[in-house]
């Protein structure tokens, strides 16, 4: 059982305050949808949780199972069980996908994973995501299509088995079939590992597949409305204007 607890989080980027007192708790097995108009701080939140040095936490706390995440180095955060599937995964030439993943897994455990077990798990993940089998041996994200990069983020999630996984617009640019395949893989991984999920997306269709247990709207640096899956439908039908009006915020 894991729990990520964020309290009164304030984050600045280049001396501009982006998050202005954000509260959020995510537990094992939960699926949180995080929505909000562009530029309101969703990616900033995820970057701050992972310890991206461009994002300065000026106030508040982030704890994972009672441990102070803000005191951890970036690699300690992922070892502690945090994972970010990125909107724009970076290309790493010269490092194969499988080498990258094996060292990431080995960095998290005392005994290195056996080659046999690693290959078995990687094959399973690649098959689940319906990706080309040669993917393991290609340089990380090098020459991958947009959709392949996104699927590859999910392969990494499946292999690393985080306790809390955050996915930033992982559905953008996926065709309908890929969306279904990625959603199924996310759900299956969660069923097998009990991870907690924080999913940033603009699209009701993705959430229809994923069936969030909680939904939130981030506006002007704070979570201003929380609810359940019906909040996703309301935003899909009515947009954010009703919330902006209610809170006097015009993003
Ligand atoms: P969202 O993900 O909700 O669309 P972001 O967190 O990406 O929003 O951005 C929130 C605000 O912070 C925007 O005004 C954006 O320009 C700014 N911002 C985010 N990251 C950076 C960065 N690395 N450098 C400069 N400004 C940034
Ligand atoms: Mg954005
Ligand atoms: Mg974003």
TrEMBL record:
<dbReference type="InterPro" id="IPR027417">
    <property type="entry name" value="P-loop_NTPase"/>
</dbReference>
<dbReference type="InterPro" id="IPR010230">
    <property type="entry name" value="FeS-cluster_ATPase_SufC"/>
</dbReference>
<keyword id="KW-0547">Nucleotide-binding</keyword>
<dbReference type="InterPro" id="IPR003439">
    <property type="entry name" value="ABC_transporter-like_ATP-bd"/>
</dbReference>
<dbReference type="GO" id="GO:0005524">
    <property type="term" value="F:ATP binding"/>
</dbReference>
<keyword id="KW-0067">ATP-binding</keyword>
<dbReference type="InterPro" id="IPR003593">
    <property type="entry name" value="AAA+_ATPase"/>
</dbReference>
<dbReference type="GO" id="GO:0016887">
    <property type="term" value="F:ATP hydrolysis activity"/>
</dbReference>
<protein>
    <submittedName>
        <fullName>ABC transporter ATP-binding protein</fullName>
    </submittedName>
</protein>
<comment type="similarity">
    <text>Belongs to the ABC transporter superfamily. Ycf16 family.</text>
</comment>
<dbReference type="InterPro" id="IPR017871">
    <property type="entry name" value="ABC_transporter-like_CS"/>
</dbReference>
<dbReference type="Pfam" id="PF00005">
    <property type="entry name" value="ABC_tran"/>
</dbReference>
